[in-house]
Automatic annotation (TrEMBL):
It comes from the Bacteria. Gene3D superfamilies: alpha/beta hydrolase, Immunoglobulins. The keyword Chaperone does not apply. Coiled coil: none annotated. This is Alpha/beta hydrolase. InterPro entries: AB_hydrolase_fold (IPR029058), Esterase-like (IPR000801), Ig-like_fold (IPR013783), Mycobacterial_A85_antigen (IPR050583). Signal peptide: none annotated. It comes from Alteromonas ponticola. Keywords: Hydrolase. GO terms for molecular function: hydrolase activity.
């Protein structure tokens, strides 16, 4: 395989077994009627059966005695055996999976849980935007018959009077990119990441944050798929791309100094699936795409992976494609390896346009996608790799 592969933070995830005491400070909303379970890579994320680990109330705190192995421990907590009840910050943002390195000397770890994501926020969010972010308010979205607020990051050197033009990256889940005040989980810190790229790598670009609605599952599924109830649903991902391509892009190109030959799309999870869809079906519009931890467990009524089915017998060459995956997300790299093989076949002699990064410590959250973002963008738009 000639596909370009990057391997981040390679490590033996678990080694020899050791005893570990877990001490947890529960949220203020904790009730003795609540059951709290810890799930992680040490028990295959199980809430039931012999592997399940329920925390016990001991002397004013929750605790559990775990048999874990040395190495990297990933875990989180579930209240009342409902995956809807997960840890959150005091201002209501979902928290990423916890990570601890376990060594011979580790006998106890302590964790504080601020709140659950089903609790009402008890703290106001403050804005964390840095640099220049312009807002285009109430842009009509005819594909979904609504109005969207669009945030646009501009490089430090940007001047409307200048002839200089910049690559443009459209990013999905736009609420989470620049500002903690608008994000529903951790923010990507794209504004901070780009400012650093500008100062250290002289790499500049415009980023357009495209928000989603409460119908994210259909908006970010480009093909018919089976929902959680096993019913086939018509994905509306094509309409999402149509909004970006035919409605939003003309507005951005008319208002800002864009380099239209370098237009990209990026997203994570279902947004990553959408980025790959854009590369597959709209490569002439999106010259580069970045799929961070793309969703690879979406199937159609025939039981086929929707993305894998779409790639069969395809011949591609237009878009540069960056895609990545964390080991923790699926417990292996089998799915992303299969994706790599399909893309390699589709690209043939153009495999230099593909880059896969495997992150052995990668979790399914904005904190880790943000860490991988600078290297992804540098590879995608650097002049020497086009």
């Amino acid at each position: 395989m000639t596909l370009l592969i990057g391997l981040m933070m390679s490590t033996a995830l678990l080694a020899s077994e050791t005893g570990l005491q877990l001490i947890v400070q529960p949220p203020a909303s904790y009730s003795s009627k609540d059951t709290i379970h810890i799930v992680g890579n040490f028990n295959d994320w199980q809430l039931d059966g012999d592997e399940a680990e329920q925390l016990q109330w001991v002397e004013g705190r929750l605790q559990a005695d775990l048999n874990v192995e040395q190495g990297e421990l990933f875990f989180t907590f579930v209240k009342n055996k409902s995956w809807r009840n997960m840890p959150a910050s005091l201002d209501g943002r979902s928290l990423c999976t916890f990570h601890r390195s376990i060594a011979d000397s580790t006998s106890q770890i302590q964790v504080s849980l601020p709140a659950w994501n089903t609790d009402s926020p008890i703290k106001e969010r403050s804005s964390t935007v840095t640099g220049t972010v312009k807002y285009l308010r109430q842009i009509y979205n005819p594909q979904f018959e609504r109005f969207d607020d669009i945030a646009v990051y501009l490089p430090q050197s940007y001047s409307p009077q200048s002839d200089k033009r910049y690559p443009v990256l459209y990013m999905l889940d736009g609420q989470n990119l620049f500002d903690t005040a608008t994000s529903y989980s951790d923010e990507w810190q794209i504004d901070e990441r780009l400012a650093k790229l500008e100062s250290e790598q002289d790499l500049e670009m415009i980023v357009v944050a495209v928000p989603n609605s409460e119908q994210r599952w259909t908006e970010y599924n480009p093909w018919p798929f089976l929902n959680s109830e096993g019913k086939q649903v018509e994905g509306k991902g094509a309409a999402t791309i149509a909004f970006i391509q035919h409605t939003l892009k003309p507005v951005i190109d008319s208002k800002f100094n864009t380099l239209q030959s370098q237009t990209g799309l990026a997203g994570s999870s279902l947004g990553g699936l959408m980025a790959l869809y854009a590369g597959i079906e709209h490569g002439k519009v999106f010259s580069f795409v970045a799929a961070f931890s793309p969703a690879l467990d979406i199937h159609n009524k025939d039981g086929e992976n929707v993305l894998f089915a779409a790639l069969k017998n395809k011949q591609l060459s237009a878009s540069k494609i960056y895609f990545d995956m964390g080991w923790v997300e699926y417990g292996d790299y089998a799915r992303v390896n299969q994706l790599a093989q399909l893309l390699e076949t589709a690209y043939g002699k153009q495999q230099h346009k593909l880059k896969l990064v495997k992150d052995d410590l990668g979790r399914h959250c904005e904190l880790d996608w943000s860490k991988r973002f600078p290297d992804a963008i540098e590879w995608l738009i650097a002049s020497d790799s086009n």
